Amino acid sequence: HAKALGKNRFCYFVPSIQAKFAERLQLGHDLRSAMAQDQLDVYYQPIVDLATGQIVKAEALVRWLHPRRGWISPAQFIPIAEDIGLINEIGDWVFRQATGMAKRLWESGRNGTTSGMSLQISINKSPRQFFTGHAHETWIDHLQEIGLPAECIAIEITEGLLLDERPDVTSKLQQFRRAGIQVSLDDFGTGYSAMAYLKRLDIDYLKIDQSFVRDMTSTPSDQAITEAIIAMAHKLGLRVVAEGVETREQRDLLSAAGCDFGQGYWFSRALPEDEFFKLLQRWPD
Ligand code: C2E
Ligand code: MG
Ligand code: MG
Ligand code: MG
């Protein structure tokens, strides 16, 4: 076929694009059946108060062990779920899992942190879930149904959401915060980082993207940016979570810069619920 087209170089690209498309289509199909067969899982990664060393929060992260391909990253399948209209279903499922876990944590009595606050579970919410007719009220209602205080939950949104200045986005965020659910701005610094959005939006936490944290010990400009983000966030009344903390050196630099919370492999990877509970039990007081 390529030969028949002669020297048309364009055709060299066709097979790989087709292959990618077919692969995406296949993954989307597999994801649908994984959802139907209850093959997804939710893992929990601790978030540590850098001043006290205590685990005070955890991020819920969806996991998919594909029967033939092994683990597939949510960074790969969440965008597919968005494209094929499966994101609301997955998002609702993760929410129910994570709130169920938060409730068990709350009841176990091991939720009490040194500050006396409840351990908070943070749940990612894709921008797409704000734009499609997803009913936010059902999340708020669900908390009442299971009897979980809203402070036990936070949602993480990305900057992509903020670029869209649709009033319904702002009102949906306000709806959550009025209900007592805190809001985190995820991956801060990777997008357009429009500072103006920060003062307009009702949010509680800012999560510094791991790309800054990764390079802050080797690159002075990344350290400067990280310190500036922390200082600015504090002036705006926000608290800061650093993502991707992998070394003691990074943790120490972040502590020195006044960063409130740290999350990363230095503390722990994301764990299945039972292992997360065990980690809490052996975590030094
Ligand atoms: P994110 O929300 O920024 O989550 C943090 C990611 O960084 C997680 O990747 C986590 O495993 C990883 N991470 C944590 N500590 C370290 C570290 O020290 N070093 C490095 N290199 N990575 C670290 P994960 O679980 O693969 O998730 C990737 C992305 O997929 C998430 O980024 C989030 O955007 C999305 N995602 C995950 N679960 C959900 C979900 O339930 N719903 C939605 N809408 N998106 C999700
Ligand atoms: Mg997140
Ligand atoms: Mg993040
Ligand atoms: Mg990220």
From TrEMBL:
EAL domain segment(s): 24-284
Coiled-coil segments: none
Protein name, UniProt field: PAS domain S-box-containing protein/diguanylate cyclase (GGDEF) domain-containing protein
Source species: Pseudogulbenkiania subflava DSM 22618
Boundaries of the shown chain within the full protein: 418 to 702 of 702
